[in-house]
């Protein structure tokens, strides 16, 4: 029966107990193992699995996907449901066994190939993160039924399969695009520098023209103010002199008033009227000078400003035209490069598709032809087997039947008939007597030879048309 024993699991272990008093499996870290109970230690530490997965994209382009997965039993602290699945289905295989690795590899390869077949190579290459996440989710969904959990998944960079250098060509394409973009950036920077220099020159000339105009305006303004002061001083002097003269005249008038009476009053009014006219003339002259100075200033300012604006507009238009021309040249070069790349890619895709279709059609025709030959051979073998069985495995009877059925005897008879067709044999009978007077046996042999020559020579003449030589004799 045995004795109870107290078993304690290690930090990375769990105890799976089955047997007496346990319906299925219980998991413990420590337990009294009773008689008729079995305790198995489960190693729950995760293990790294490295794979080189080969898959094919939607364009039927193969690629290699290196991946490293860290996978182990999922430890659920509440009810250990996943760990029970692991103990029931997978725990029998040891840590050095390839059972779990083969299981994980089969799941990962299946999900990766299905997912890759629904995506193009460009989508897989650009969306590596999304592709990795989808592979992770789908593989985890399949591994849940075995109680396994993916602790970490690292999908490395995609690698070309020998004979299908897609990523190397894509890298060359990216390098060419980067080089073309760098050339465009250099051209744009150079263009901006030249435009900036032209703009700075225009701004400098514009500011210089503005300063010159303002200087001229100030100078003209100061000249006008100086003339105004001179006129004012001259006018005041004249007014003062006139006032002195008026005072003198007034004094004289006062002296003469007593003498002239009304004559003095009239003279004084006349003098005042003359002075008023003179003052008014001076004021009007001052206004005229002010207007002239203002008109000259405005005219000069307008001329300088219009000249500066015209030069600035001309420089801006030239810079814009040069910028537009260089932009169009760069766009034309870029468009031509893109069209050449697109044409090369389309030609390569069409040639590859044509070759692939031709190979597929040839393969399909060969397969169908082989299937037809195999089917005919199987039918003939079955037919010959049934006939051989009927004739009690007599191969000679089977041969005679096949020759009769296929008309072989008839063909042989026809060939023999064609061989003798047209022949007209002639039979000549020569008799040389009974040979009683020929002497001995030696003479009989010579006589027999001479009797054989005439029919032989006649037969040769009839069959070939050749005459015997004259020394031998002539035939009738």
Automatic annotation (TrEMBL):
Give a single Pfam family match.
Band_7
Localization of this protein: Cell membrane; Membrane, Caveola
| Domain Band residues, every copy | 10-190
Q: What is the designated name of this protein? A: Flotillin-like
Q: Give the top-rank taxon of the lineage listed in the UniProt record for this protein.
A: Eukaryota
Keyword list, A-Z: Cell membrane, Membrane
Q: Does the keyword Nucleus apply?
A: no
Report the source organism. Anisodus tanguticus
Enumerate the PANTHER family for this protein. Answer: FLOTILLIN-LIKE, FLOTILLIN-RELATED
Record lineage: Eukaryota, Viridiplantae, Streptophyta, Embryophyta, Tracheophyta
Record InterPro entries:
Band_7, Band_7/SPFH_dom_sf, Flotillin_fam
């Amino acid at each position: 029966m045995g004795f109870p024993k107290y078993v304690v699991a290690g930090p990375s272990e769990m105890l799976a107990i089955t047997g007496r008093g346990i319906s299925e499996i219980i998991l413990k870290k420590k337990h009294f193992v009773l008689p008729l109970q079995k305790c198995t230690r489960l190693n729950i530490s995760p293990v790294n699995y490295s794979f080189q997965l080969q898959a094919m994209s939607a364009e039927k382009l193969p690629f290699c996907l290196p991946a490293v997965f860290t996978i182990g039993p999922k430890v659920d602290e509440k009810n250990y449901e996943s760990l029970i699945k692991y103990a029931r289905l997978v725990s029998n295989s040891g840590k050095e066994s390839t059972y779990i690795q083969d299981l994980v590899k089969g799941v990962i390869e299946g999900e990766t190939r299905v997912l890759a077949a629904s995506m193009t190579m460009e989508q897989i290459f650009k969306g590596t993160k999304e592709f990795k996440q989808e592979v992770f989710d789908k593989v985890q969904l399949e591994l849940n039924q075995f109680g396994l959990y993916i602790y970490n998944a690292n999908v490395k960079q995609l690698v070309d399969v020998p004979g299908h250098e897609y990523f190397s060509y894509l890298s060359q394409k990216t390098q060419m695009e980067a080089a073309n973009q760098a050339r465009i950036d250099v051209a744009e920077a150079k263009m901006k520098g030249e435009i900036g220099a032209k703009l700075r020159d225009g701004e400098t000339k514009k500011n210089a023209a503005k300063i010159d105009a303002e200087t001229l305006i100030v100078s003209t303004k100061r000249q006008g103010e100086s003339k105004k002061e001179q006129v004012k001083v001259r006018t005041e002097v004249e007014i003062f002199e006139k006032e002195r003269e008026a005072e003198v005249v007034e004094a004289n008038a006062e002296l003469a008033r007593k003498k002239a009476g009304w004559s003095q009053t009239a003279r004084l009014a006349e003098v005042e009227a003359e002075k008023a006219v003179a003052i008014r003339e001076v004021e009007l002259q001052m206004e005229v000078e002010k207007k002239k100075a203002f008109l000259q200033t405005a005219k000069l300012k307008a001329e300088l400003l219009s000249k500066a604006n015209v030069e600035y507009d001309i420089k801006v238009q030239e810079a814009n035209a040069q910028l537009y021309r260089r932009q169009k040249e760069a766009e034309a070069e870029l468009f031509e490069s893109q069209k050449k790349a697109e044409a090369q890619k389309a030609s390569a895709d069409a040639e590859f598709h044509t070759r692939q279709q031709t190979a597929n059609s040839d393969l399909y025709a060969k397969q169908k032809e082989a299937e037809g030959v195999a089917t005919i051979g199987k039918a003939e073998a079955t037919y010959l087997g049934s006939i051989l069985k009927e004739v009690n495995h007599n191969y000679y009877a089977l041969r005679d039947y096949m020759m009769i059925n296929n008309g072989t005897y008839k063909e042989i008879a026809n060939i023999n008939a064609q061989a003798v067709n047209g022949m007209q044999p002639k039979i000549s009978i020569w008799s040389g007597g009974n040979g009683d007077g020929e002497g001995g046996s030696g003479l009989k042999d010579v006589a027999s030879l001479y009797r054989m020559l005439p029919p032989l020579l006649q037969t040769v003449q009839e069959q070939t048309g050749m005459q015997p030589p004259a020394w031998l004799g002539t035939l009738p």
